[in-house]
Amino acid sequence: MTLAWDHARSQFPGVEVSEAEFRAYLLRHNAPGESDEAPAQGRNPLVIITDLYLACACSRGDARAIAAFEHRYSSTVESVRLRFRGRAPSEPELWAELAQRLFVRTEDKPAKIAEFSGRSELGAWLKVVTSRIILNRLQAEKPEASVEDRILEGLLVTQASPELSVGRAEHRALMSKAFALAASELPTRERRILRQAFAEGFTIDDLASLYNVHRSTAARWIKDATNSLSGRVATIVRTELRLSKAEYESWARDITSSMDVSIAKYLATRAG
Questions:
Q1: Which of 17, 47, 157, 167 is the most buried (most CB within 10 A)?
Q2: Rounded to two decimals, what is the model's pTM?
Q3: pLDDT for 168-195, tens place per residue?
Q4: Does the keyword Signal apply (predicted)?
């Protein structure tokens, strides 16, 4: 433990956390809880320790640690902000909200940064927090834009399936309803993966890093989730529209084709 603690200290000159305090911090985070982080199997233990050391120092309001955090992750936060193409708050506004969210403690509640448990990289965890801050602000401006609607927009490619888009308003409304119901029936992990990929703008490499898996595994998760989703949507729509067998099969193919194109575009343009 002493060698790991010494290594972490060396990464952040001037940021001091005693070995006893750090050991206690690690013990508090030993048991996994509800989180978007996946177990950090296979990660370099020194990287885990370094991330946790910085989070520990930041959680108690250490000004030098917070300055080191902002310096270390300024490009990470900016990369998330730029994905929203001008809809996100300015960089100073975003950092002000992040600082309030991550580092402010109250008498009955620790700083949010203390929730980081080392089950993923600190940078990947920060991307989740940053994306949610931006999405919450956008949703407050347009409360009608649900997460399901954002995923729907990301998955349905109008060039491939114009009949599934704005061509027929009544079908569009039904699709939105069916999609929301189908998404609610998916397992938690599949809903989370689709949300992060198609609503929150995470790249395939972001997801691989966040869940500590190979990018091919992350890609397979996305394909499996969309296949489950398209099957549920098609079944729901068949009962609502009372389609004939031939019409239903055509409709189901259109949904699957559209989502396949979306996945291909996602893997091709958002990697790296």
A1: 17
A2: 0.60
A3: 445 566 677 777 788 888 888 888 888 8
A4: no
